[in-house]
Design a protein that fits this description.
alpha/beta
């Protein structure tokens, strides 16, 4: 039963986003951007539950335990949640507050979510605290790249499969759980679904090129948003208006390394794969990979990609798209409302990355925050941690609206179809998104220098692949402990 909602003045804000460009780099060898913190990615706040999750699932209380007054901490780098200080703004937030007070009294424990420091501080803090034997934080949030390096040092506790049973009603992200497996056993988890990256497009430039300004939306809805239709739009939008032989508007302005990673996944390819035991596999030598690399590499020959103008810097594509110099830009969902402002002079939309010929649907790499328990806790203590976690984040009957996240998303987008069609497709289909395994390789993999930095510069894709194989095989052999 819902409690009467008491409106209060204070607003509790949960910061949700996706990894910034540094997280797309995959290690120090790829670092092309300043060491600035990306927005927090939890997957809990913007995600739509799977159809089976939420109101239709009744959590069966099979274990009424007394936790002896233990205090549990979930560590992050972005904010706080404590029953003594949280002030709800909505009826759902108030119900969550009362529910958490109830469970803490019933099972005799306390719990909070705590900002342990800034992004870089937390990145460095996690291994130092665990190796020092600290038991202050029971669950750490971390980026996938951090998890991959720290897991090689055996810093996290193994987790039972039963913790992620659908009977909990929690929308576990299976891709992250499976990506955390070592020896077949999961060591991390995530919940919810973060909308993936795609293509932002300038509707004015499409209309001036003689196209329907909503064409990418229509193609996506019809199942015809493919590499070929993407290229048709890019060619039409690349226009030399003054006849000097240099385009005045371009079809594409984007970050090459980021574009390539999306192109690969859109063709059901990836830099690195992983087997059921958590061993890394070199997947750059597959037909799907070569096809995607060749397609991305040939965009330069097509003359539709905007080159870096002198004096604008490597991130020229941000200003180029925002100022109407290019019709399309490939980027993460977090760009909406940040780099791409909903109040730009030109109308704009957001669609998935176009589908490659070897994929049956739109696929994407997702960068969920991994959550893991330090190895300093015993098996029995880990069980207590998950006992309270299940109740801390369980669905609230009557409040888990599968489309409730849309209200916040509309504020970041110019066109409603970006939310009702594109982002809804992502969040309703968690199987479309899987972690980018390349970021989990301890120490990172140099996919920027090896591949991303070399596209659009006349390099032969077959030569690029042949040159990379010995190095990539050695990197992965070391990561797997074979050498």
């Amino acid at each position: 039963m819902k409690r009467n909602f008491v409106k209060v003045a204070a607003v509790a804000t949960l910061l949700v986003g996706a990894l910034a460009f540094t997280a797309c780099g995959g290690g120090a060898a790829d670092d092309t951007t300043p060491d600035t913190p990306p927005p927090a990615v939890t997957g809990n706040e913007t995600a739509a539950p799977t159809p089976d999750a939420g109101n239709d699932v009744e959590v069966v209380e099979a274990d009424a335990r007394d936790l002896g007054g233990q205090h549990f901490v979930i560590g992050n780098w972005w904010g706080y949640w404590h029953v003594d200080t949280f002030e709800p703004q909505t009826e759902e937030a108030e119900e969550r507050l009362f529910d958490r007070i109830d469970i803490m009294e019933r099972y005799n424990f306390t719990m909070e979510e705590r900002r342990m420091g800034g992004w870089g501080e937390v990145r460095d803090m996690i291994p130092l605290q665990i190796m020092a034997g600290s038991r202050d934080v029971h669950i750490w949030h971390m980026e996938g790249a951090w998890f991959g390096t720290m897991q090689q040092q055996n810093l996290f506790a193994p987790l039972r499969e039963e913790y992620f049973d659908p009977v909990t009603g929690i929308n576990w992200h299976r891709g992250t759980i499976d990506a955390s497996r070592r020896g077949g056993t999961p060591h991390a988890f995530a919940t919810g679904v973060v909308p993936g990256g795609g293509v932002y497009f300038n509707m004015r430039l499409l209309e001036e090129a003689g196209l329907d300004p909503e064409l990418p939306f229509d193609l996506q809805l019809a199942g015809d948003w493919t590499w070929d239709t993407f290229m048709d739009i890019a060619r039409a939008a690349t226009r030399d208006l003054d006849g000097d032989g240099v385009p005045d508007t371009w079809g594409i302005a984007t970050f090459g390394q980021d574009f390539l990673q999306r192109a690969l996944r859109s063709n059901d390819a990836r830099y690195v794969d992983m087997d059921a035991d958590g061993r890394f596999i070199n997947s750059t030598n597959t037909p799907e990979f070569l096809e995607a690399l060749t397609w991305a590499n040939n965009l330069g020959d097509e003359g539709v990609t905007m080159p870096e103008p002198e004096g604008m810097g490597w991130d020229f594509f941000v200003a180029a798209f925002n100022n109407g110099m290019a019709a399309m830009r490939a980027a993460g969902d977090y760009v909406a409302g940040a780099h791409v402002n909903p109040n730009l002079a030109d109308p704009w939309g957001f669609v998935a990355f176009p589908r490659g010929p070897r994929a049956d649907t739109h696929l994407m790499d997702g960068n969920m925050n991994f959550q893991a328990v330090p190895a300093n806790f015993s098996e029995e203590e880990v069980d207590d941690i998950f006992f309270v976690l299940h109740r801390w984040i369980r669905p609230l009957p009557g409040f888990d609206d599968p489309l409730g996240w849309q209200a916040g998303a509309f504020a970041s987008h110019y066109h409603p179809r970006s939310v009702t069609e594109t982002m809804t497709m992502f969040t309703r289909n968690p199987a479309l998104m899987s972690p980018a395994f390349v970021h989990l390789v301890p120490g990172g993999m140099p996919h920027g220098p090896e591949f991303g930095w070399r596209i659009w510069h006349g390099n032969d894709p077959a030569v690029i692949l042949e040159e990379a194989q010995p190095r990539w095989n050695e990197y992965l052999a070391r990561a797997n402990g074979d050498i």
